[in-house]
Please model this.
Amino acid sequence: MEGLLQLLFNGLSVGAVYALFALGYTLVFSVLGVINFAHGAIFTMGAYFTYLLIGGAVGANGLLAGLQFPFALPFWLALPLAGIASAAVALVVERIAFRPLRDRGSDPLLALITSLGAGVILVNLIQLLVGAESYSIPVGTLGSLPAALNIAGAKVRTVQVMLLAISGLLLAALSIWINGSRSGKALQAVSEDPITAQLLGINSSRVIQIAFGISGFLAGMAGGLVGLSISIAGPYFGIGYGLKGLGVLVLGGLGSVPGAVLGGLIIGLAEACVPADLSGYKDAVSFGFLFLVLLIRPQGLLGRPQSNKV
Amino acid sequence: MNGPQAPLLELRNLVVRYGSITALHGINLTVQAGELVTLLGANGAGKSTTLRAISSLIHPASGEILWHGGLINRLRTERTVKLGISHCPEGRRVLSRQSVADNLALGAWLRRDKAAIATDLERCYALFPRLAERRSQLAGSLSGGEQQMLAISRSLMARPTLLMLDEPSLGLAPRLVAEVMAALSQLHRDGLTILLVEQNAQAALTIADRGLVLEAGSISAGGSAEQLLADDSLQASYLGAN
Model:
């Protein structure tokens, strides 16, 4: 029973991060109909931003060797600030890799290539600046909180509880924003029919920027949380998450917000069920699962059949 | 340039191209404040293109679009809405995954005057009582006629100076066509300026002050609604009378 509870927590906390990550993809996909391939790199940047803001020092490689901010913020402050910095990066990516194509009326699919390019540049920039070594966020970051909590007899790492709680909060805030606010409804309008949205006076460029900003914020927060719970394995560590996020996105149904959440939780749980000595097969399990689902439901779990997307 | 006698909307030698295809060959058109002008013609004559050019969904290759005498050729679409031009597109295009009330609220996107928005909302519900009954229903679940009513109401929520409608009768049963036309006529009597694109010439001319006939991207005829209705050859050749 304890084992099961522990497994559930492991799965849900990993899955919640996948969900956050996939939601960033979903937001941009829903307004533009394309995947932002730089999303994984923005996630990575979020992890590094968090590390620097809590007072971490840059290692010996890279142009910024030895750099350390003169202040060390508490984690609860550093994380949202890292999210905001990541949102800024996402806006730059939009400006450079997406908007010029849109202004020219190019095929939207070209943005797949330009965003992939932007992602490669970001990852290399990280390597250039702070080196390729791994960084880990120090244990004392959470202050006086214990390293593990006892929940109904199961020992659960505090970090995982935090991961789950923060992700849950963000997911709830996002869905309230999309369904309950004026700008959220404008986002839905642009997503369903960009021409009609313009005819209603909605500035679609602004809505697209908002989508990128929020998407970057979510990616940065997810990066910081993963950095805290595992470690920052190097500039490329977002790529694995990027692929996993795509899997989650497709599993849940492209463009569906609840689908991204459900997909994330399912993949997280599926991976948690892989025994520790077979952990090398985690990806095989999650992508195998994705494969099976797509055989039965090509549009994903909560996706609409393709014909609905004009 | 904003002379008091400048018409509300004027198109001068408007040329619009889609790639190598010329859709409008230099058309001239004037709409005075308070008029209901209808633009008639067959499929592909360039009626929708004219409206799309006015609301900047497509930019003209040459010619001028004047609003109160001022050039508005190359605005962004949302700027034309701000100027007071509301374009109700062909095929209704309601936001199917949002409720009737949300669709209407988005129609007032650029407005901040909450009290007046509430008044206009009630006016729309009075104009089309069926929308009031279905206000919390998803727009995608409405019938074609109801969706058209919603699309018109949504355009009205911007409180436009000029309402442009693209084939509001398309695909509607005759009884609903009559209902929609009656509502437009009511709006016109209340002082709204309307530019109505229609294939259903009979229905449009019954409520219009003036009509223009577009044929293959050029204006081939024009006159008062009575003249056009009385012109048998026109009826036979362009207006698809039946």
In short: Chain A has one domain: 9-243. Residues 224 and 268 of chain A are 18 Å apart (CA to CA). The first strand of chain A starts at residue 148 and ends at 151. Chain A touches chain B at residues 182, 185-186, 188-189, 192-193, 195-203 (CB under 8 Å).
